[in-house]
Amino acid sequence: DFDELKLAMKRAMEHTQLKEENRLLRESLGAHFDSGNMIGHSDSMVKLLEIVAQVAPSDATVLITGESGTGKELIAGAIHFNSSRRDGPFIKLNCSAITETLLESELFGHEKGAFTGAERVKEGKFRMAEGGSIFLDEVSEMSLSMQVKLLRVLQEREITRVGGEKVFKVDVRVIAATNKSLTDEIEAGRFREDLYYRLNVVTLSVPPLRERKEDIALLARHFLTLFSEKNKKELKGFTPQAVDRLIKYDWPGNIRELMNAIERAVVLSQSEYLDVSDFPLINSREKTTDPVISENLPLDEVEKITIIRTLEQLKGNKSETARKLGITRKTLHKKLKSYGLM
Description:
Shape: elongated
Structural class: alpha/beta
Low-confidence stretches: 28-32
Mean pLDDT: 86
Radius of gyration: 25 Å
Number of helices: 16
Strand content: 5-15%
Helix content: 40-55%
Distance between the termini: 94 Å
Strand order of the largest sheet: 2-5-8-1-9
Number of strands: 11
């Protein structure tokens, strides 16, 4: 029957095409989440990436902690795409964005007719992540009843759809994240201690941007290049005053806030270099009396103030000061001697 043959061939072709599209998507995701894309040379980031490299090949459950906007999802992706599960799915779910009644269905799926509106069988995120990893962001926002159900999945490695009785075994690596202290949540009675110990096999703490200020200029340049290309603009960089202001600001929204600030500045810029005036939101939140910014000083004087201030911040550690400023220790000694400080 040639009609049947044509239909079978068509389905086979569509299936092959879908597999190829999924492969290409996984490759592009893998490139995005590669640890090489995590920009930063601060000690805290170097140590974090070393631990990621150790943890990724294992099948251990990982708990990632850190403030909002620090890049927890990027760390989770790096763990998955550097593991033996890299060819499997990487499924993400923000637990704070879904109501409790829908969260169970999202995680475990539901049977047709399980509740009003359940017009067909739905596979949950755990089944979709079979052979891969599932990333549960803001896991602390789960209700206590949902925490019990998640604990059972972690213990038994099996799920049951909402409204169903059939038990499905699942082979999924769980990576969870939170911006809250789970020990504080346990003390307050909002998080189960037994679930905490199940999730806390390996804990990775992502530092806030204010604790890795030496990475801010690197990240800013990265986002400048990214958004310049995206918006077809030819921007050459930042003025020294702008860089100084970006480094001094505490970035309560962390990398996400920095990225948004750079994108806004690029879109609205009318010159080749981004200046202090291109970051009005930062300016409105932070008043500075730093002489480097508030006065028009000669370049030599600006350099002197920067060196002395950095040395003071690092409590007189000359090696660390030279490293942070990007100069040799010999050059630093020479500068300090000229200032009469040696």
